[in-house]
Amino acid sequence: MKRKSLIAIFLFLIITFLVFIVINSLKSNKNDFDNEIEKVRHISLGDYVTMDFVRIEAGTFWMGSDAEIGDSDETPKHMVTITQPFYIGKYEVTQEQWQEVMGTNPSEFIGEHNPVDSVSWEECQVFLKKLEEITGFQYVLPTEAQWEYACRAGTNTAWHFGEDDSLLSQYAWCDTDPSKMTHPVGEKKPNEWGLYDMYGNVQEWCSDWYENKYLDENSVDPLGPSTGDSKVLRGGGWGESALYLRSAYRNCNGVEGKNNGIGFRCVMLIR
């Protein structure tokens, strides 16, 4: 009887140990999966040229600014909900990447790792379509709401690093740079979500038509007005001061407009 009790206890301990191993293995696999979907996606364009995309989770944030802080077109400050995660470029699209996809380089400030400049909104659409043909993934320009949400990275301050504009040069190529030109992407500090050059270097095209004030006070996945004369630009460029490099700052240009301070970054759709 005593022998049977010992065997039963021994078997119970073995089963308990095995169950413990299985549970921990499942937890580990879940953590690995969670980490995997949050990783940067590395997309090959061929010839050792890649593009990196950072996964941005869904969430709610305050978009725009108060009239006394920014321009009137940044009002009203309102709550926006992004309901779906998305991948956004870790960096602005570079000249090397544009060259690989389009076979040309329209930039004024030449440098393969500099952001491509002097590209119109319409030319960006051609790039995005060709990029899809090369990689098999679908790409768009970020909506204005996606751009600001990604730029803020969970903050509600004038800049994603706070309210002290003396820190801006740590994060952006702007008017304090004596060279007065673009620079290779990723040389400055990123925001908290790992995105570089959200301020400065080049202004970035968004998908939305521009309106001189926001249409709704609170909204879900806003797409902007259905028509317009100009498309939204965000982030400010290499020649601009801190006031024009805030998270809420808005600019615009016609779909064929381009200059050496305009570029873009992509959003890769999740399927």
Automatic annotation (TrEMBL):
Keywords: Membrane, Transmembrane, Transmembrane helix
InterPro entries according to UniProt: CTDL_fold (IPR016187), Sulfatase_Mod_Factor_Kinase (IPR051043), SUMF_dom (IPR005532), SUMF_sf (IPR042095)
GO molecular function: formylglycine-generating oxidase activity
Residue ranges of domain Sulfatase-modifying factor enzyme-like in the record: 52-267
Gene3D superfamilies named among the record's database cross-references: paralog of FGE (formylglycine-generating enzyme)
Transmembrane segments: 7-26
Name assigned to this protein: Formylglycine-generating enzyme, required for sulfatase activity, contains SUMF1/FGE domain
Taxonomic lineage: Bacteria, Bacillati, Bacillota, Clostridia, Lachnospirales
